[in-house]
Design brief:
The chain is an alpha/beta fold. It has 27 helices and 8 strands. Helix content is 54%, strand content 6%. The protein binds zinc ion.
């Protein structure tokens, strides 16, 4: 559940649009300036198309540097914007095709193209001449949007280290390259470290029939269960055999333990060195500085605060789990970590009796998508016009222009069904960042759902709404002068708030009743939706403190001096501090905590966005989720401005006050 925006560029300027962008080249037409002698391969054709933006960016760089005389917005910043539009288009197309194109050789070519563009980004980040050129521009203080673009662009350069001496810049570049390599290795070690346990078939008791059928005994007479999610998740939820669950849990939470602690130590040391070269006390201080949260101290306070707020609820959840455990084992005195999911599921079934077989008939795929399009058209005053002649990478992809009357606001691509070689999760990808007068925003939803009249799980419905929250942000916020303000290009810890908030439209009877109907045409009963909500909420206390445990690992590992950090001891300390579940001997969770690479110290962002998302829902309480006045205000004050203002200011513009924790507290309490 994420948005694949310009993550790679985040450290630098992400903006701009050429006023004369090269025409889009369809995939199957050669981009050639001389006669083509023999047909080019599909890979060559793709690469030619993919490089158009990057080539434009490379051509613009010397033009910026060559400007003589006074530097102005027109002769410098506009070109910088153009450069970034080109770069962004290449990164977006390469990033998308590397994950979704049906042909492996094209996916490979796309990864190559992405690397070429990433190298150019690194070159730009530390380009002193470019920095000096941009710094020399005098911007009219009255033009606040351009002032913001100018200041943030320069700040990102400085955060990369552009103003340091040659030796420091060289070292910073080395560190970044080394970090990329180590990060890939860390993730690879996790992905490749698939462990398994072997069991007598009778020990699968409790698991669904289709799971048991898919796991026949091998020649030894035993069944193999691996630590991969399709095995691990159902096993931890359904297997009645406590010892077997413990064994699989220990295997799962030991992945990566051979090499990853040493790798992580190197990563943390390099990040610490980087922070220190750039003038920060810790890497956590460095990475939080340009986020909503602004400092490592605030992040630590936030974690404490949420953990405290969730404590009572966590205790209640824990006691309920213990009570359930006692129905199985009278003498039980405590619940262990490998029992949590199993007991939680039992409580939910007993108390709320939500069976997915009862829920699924209300959510055929086509009907659900039509409902989502209807809801977003209504609340945002837009229309979706099907496009039949767009270039797509697979016949499954549906394309719509987003219109308001005769005005075209952008384009969306829906690539919603699984196929071989395709990205396995759900995410919103950017194809074009919208820049006023240059290019319209284009976004892509990539999911793996059933098709046609096949039924969806409600979880998948929620995911679709979540990702659509990102997509609407991208499209409606995609009409900016400067590309670095386009769409979802806001602070990293705000990006998930609009999508988490939009999940509510998939949980409310008011909105579900518009489209959730079974084969007999009956609307989903309100009573069923109530039970679904309650079941979903059970365990939110223990889950929240668990999240704060993870967030604190992420933050503390980037705060403690690397030579003083005992990774395992710190993990044990934090687990005891935040969660009611004991550390389980033999596990080394941090060795497979993949987020430590991509998110570094910022795992807190998930919960932070949720706090904001809950607050953003408060104005809807009076008149409901479809109220035109409230939805339009939300659209215009939160989504449309994109990154032109600080997220805290956008939130204040919409709420009429600063954000606070009250709605989140209520969510935890009820
Ligand atoms: Zn998301």
């Amino acid at each position: 559940m994420s948005t694949r925006h310009l993550a790679f560029l985040a450290a630098m300027v992400v903006a701009c649009g050429p006023k004369t962008k090269p025409a889009e080249q369809p995939v199957n037409e050669p981009v050639a300036d001389k006669p083509v002698v023999k047909p080019k391969s599909p890979e060559d054709l793709f690469l030619a198309e993919c490089r158009v933006g990057l080539d434009t960016a490379r051509e613009i760089l010397p033009q910026i540097l060559a400007v003589e005389g006074e530097r102005t917005v027109e002769n410098t910043l506009t070109l910088v914007n153009d450069l970034h539009v080109g770069l962004s288009n290449t990164m977006a197309l390469a990033g998308l095709y590397s994950e979704v194109h049906p042909t492996e050789s094209i996916r490979e070519a796309a990864r190559g193209c992405e690397q070429e563009a990433a190298q150019f980004v690194t070159e730009l980040q530390l380009h002193r001449g470019l920095y000096d050129a941009i710094a020399a521009v005098a911007v009219d203080p009255g033009d606040v949007v351009t002032v913001r673009f100018h200041e943030r662009t320069l700040r990102d350069f400085r955060r990369a280290g552009v103003d340091k001496d040659n030796a420091t810049r060289q070292r910073l570049q080395q560190i970044d390259e080394e970090l990329t390599r180590l990060g890939q290795q860390f993730s690879k070690n996790i992905a490749e470290d698939v462990r398994s346990i072997e069991l007598e078939p009778a020990r699968l008791a409790g698991l669904p029939e289709d799971f048991i059928a898919a796991h026949p005994a091998g020649p030894s007479g035993k069944v193999k269960i691996t630590t991969d999610y399709p095995d691990y998740n159902p096993f931890m939820m359904y297997a009645d055999d406590d010892a077997a669950r413990r064994e699989l849990y220990v295997a799962f939470r030991s992945r990566g333990d051979k090499d990853n602690e040493a790798l992580l130590a190197q990563v943390l040391a390099l990040r610490d060195e980087k922070a220190s070269l750039l003038g920060y006390d810790t890497f956590a201080d460095y990475i939080t500085e340009d986020k909503m949260i602004k400092s490592a101290k605030h992040a630590a306070d936030f974690i404490e605060r949420v953990a405290k707020l969730a404590q009572a609820r966590a205790k209640r959840d824990y006691n309920e789990l213990l009570k359930e455990l006692k129905t199985i084992d009278k003498k039980a005195v405590r619940v262990e970590d490998w029992q949590k999911t199993y007991l939680e599921n039992r409580v939910k079934l007993k108390k709320y009796k939500v069976d997915s077989k009862e829920v699924r008939p209300y959510f055929p795929y086509d009907q659900t998508l039509a409902g989502l399009l209807d809801i977003t058209s209504t609340i945002y005053d837009i229309q979706y016009a099907p496009v039949s002649d767009a270039t797509v990478w697979h016949p499954d992809v549906k394309v719509f222009d987003v219109m308001r009357g005769a005005a075209k606001l952008g384009r969306i691509y829906l690539d919603m069904h699984p196929r071989e070689g395709k990205y396995k999760h759900a995410a919103q990808f950017t194809l074009h960042d919208g820049v006023e007068g240059v290019q319209l925003p284009e976004g892509v939803l990539v999911c793996n759902f059933p098709r046609g009249n096949e039924l969806m799980e409600h979880d998948d419905v929620v995911t679709t709404f979540h990702e659509f929250g990102h997509l609407m942000h991208h499209v409606l916020g995609g009409n900016q002068t400067w590309i670095r303000h386009s769409g979802v290009a806001t602070e990293h810890d705000f990006v998930e708030a609009p999508s988490q908030m939009f999940e509510e439209w998939a949980w409310s009877h008011e909105t579900l009743a518009r489209f959730a109907k079974n084969g007999a045409g009956e609307v989903i009963p309100r009573e069923l939706v109530d039970r679904m909500r309650k079941a979903d909420k059970f365990g939110v206390g223990t889950q929240t403190v668990q999240q704060m445990f993870y967030a604190s690992i992420s933050l503390r590992y980037h705060t403690v001096a690397p030579d003083k950090l005992d990774q395992l001891a710190e993990l044990k300390r934090l687990q005891a501090k935040y969660t009611p579940f004991r550390y389980v001997d033999g596990t080394r969770f941090h060795a497979s905590f993949g987020h430590l690479m991509g998110y570094s110290a910022m795992y807190y962002t998930y919960m932070w966005s949720l706090v904001i998302a809950k607050d953003l829902l408060t104005p809807f309480q009076k008149k409901g989720l479809m109220d035109p006045e409230t939805t339009r205000a939300y659209r215009d004050k939160i989504l449309v401005p994109g990154g032109t203002k600080d997220a805290a200011v956008l939130v204040k513009d919409f709420l009429g006050r600063d954000y606070n924790f009250k709605a989140f507290e209520k969510y935890l309490a009820e």
